[in-house]
Amino acid sequence: xxxxxxxxxxxxxxxVVEVFPPHVTAFIVMTSLIVLGPWTGISPSEGISGFxxxxxxxxxxxxxxxxxxxxxGAVQKLGERMASFAGTDQRKQLGATLxxxxxxxxxxxxxxxxxxLIPVVSDVADRGRTSPSKLLIPLSYGAMVGGMLTxxxxxxxxxxxxxxxxxxxxxxxxxxxxxxxxxKLGIIVFVVGTVYLMTVGQRLIPExxxxxxxxxxxxxxxxxxxxxxxxxxxxxxxxxxxxxMEGIELDADIVSLVRGEGTFLEPLAGNTVRPGDVLVxxxxxxxxxxxxxxxxLSFSTDNVTEAALAPDREGETLIELVxxxxxxxxxxxxxxxxxxQTYDTNVLAVRRGSELLHEWMDRTPLRRGDTLVIQASEEIxxxxxxxxxxxxxxxxxxxxxxxxxxxxxxAIVAGVVGLAATGRFDILTTALxxxxxxxxxxxxxxxxxxxxxxxxVIFLLAGLxxxxxxxxxxxxxxxxxxxxxxxxxxxxxxxxxxVVYVITTLVTAVVSNSASxxxxxxxxxxxxxxxxxxxxxFVLAVTFAAxxxxxxxxxxxxxxxxxxxxxxxxxxxxRVGAPLQLLLSIATVGGIVLFWGV
Length: 598
Fold this sequence. Notes:
Membrane topology: Multi-pass membrane protein
Number of helices: 28
Main location: membrane
CATH superfamily of one domain: Regulator of K+ conductance, C-terminal domain
InterPro entries: Cit_transptr-like_dom, DASS-Related_Transporters, Na/sul_symport_CS, RCK_C, RCK_C_sf
GO biological process, one term: potassium ion transport
Helix content: 55-70%
GO molecular function: monoatomic cation transmembrane transporter activity
Distance between the termini: 29 Å
Radius of gyration: 26 Å
């Protein structure tokens, strides 16, 4: 038990300080449990059992189904309907955002839903002259409460169902959840969350990005961009743009070239520099002066506008890219990933939370949730929109969706949900069958299967499941459960249930939602049994609490996805989310007592 507690404590520490990405930490935990098997009770076969666990495979299948729907453009088309309905009325925009994020999240994984709707919501905000900050936190929160409506709304629900089913032999009231088993409670949570966000929450959300701001102003880019004239005696003359900066150890980039009435954007490298050319350079002022002095350049103007950076598509080629947690660029630098060469684009700034990075970006390791401001052509933007490594916050001009497959994709998802709801087939069987159906009908191409899966999520689940087994097997869960049960000496049963909910939300904020259900469900079940109460009510409280991390941008993936595009500060999530968290804790516990009792 001591060894298992030590491994869990080390895992908590690594999750908090992010020594490694969460899925790598989970893999280290799994390996530690196996290596220390004589003390943890975890054999090699049990250690790797997370990879063959029903919940892990079901989550994998649901990710493929969500990917298939995204490839058809169905959610994006729904978003366009949302935009036309919302217009310029901020209240309508907010209501539409909550509805169009929450309801699809009941049957599709809510993380891809938010990823698909970020550009739609950003476009709605831009058209209506509304701050995107006012809509993006509601987008995330709406998808989170929508995911609580059914078993398959979140991976957390699926993992909770699996753990509850595994404990069924020990506690007769526990079992794997059915598709709509807790939907009536989910409806209460969804309604309460929506009403809060439409009223109090809307007033608490700050306008971090002003609707009148250009991207240059929002990212404070003006001090880092300047137009310089290439003099007759400049060392740049006769060299290609790609060669000009070779051997120059300065933090500067040439982002465009102006010659007469024409402007050359990326790809720039092959263009030969001539006397009289005007170069738009990204650098701070001291660096710019050194470059001008050493290379024979002079000031053309000290004011660069978005139109000067992209005159043919005014402002549109300055766009934002969000790095999701599954991006392969996480941990890489722009230089090591050969970002500029691969995508023919310039990175002008990086937003990391409320921090703006302008200098030595090529050498700065990228993190999940980073937002990059890039300058690119329309074709490149469309290409980036199809890459899983990025979320483009602008709608692509020429999206390559498989629109003819929309009815097929919707029918397959409906079939998966319907068949699982009848109880004749379990969700694993119907989800895998749905994946096969999508491949056979061409909704998902065979070569897309690997990119459709968020492998960091799969490794996180597979790595932490043996920790839950060790918690149960060594008695660690019973020990913590007994500690929780002591609160029954001075609290009524409903009070203890609320305490379990709150503890779970705090654990989720520190680690991940999946980790919290794996660790907390055995604890909650043990605590309930020791007090002579129904373990089912306590397990259900843990299930809902683990999907309710509204107070930080890092505890839940959808919060992280909107962090950069909304320009939020870390404290904004606590400001808006803490009252919601308290409100939902009361609504959830009250709903459980009303429907199932304790």
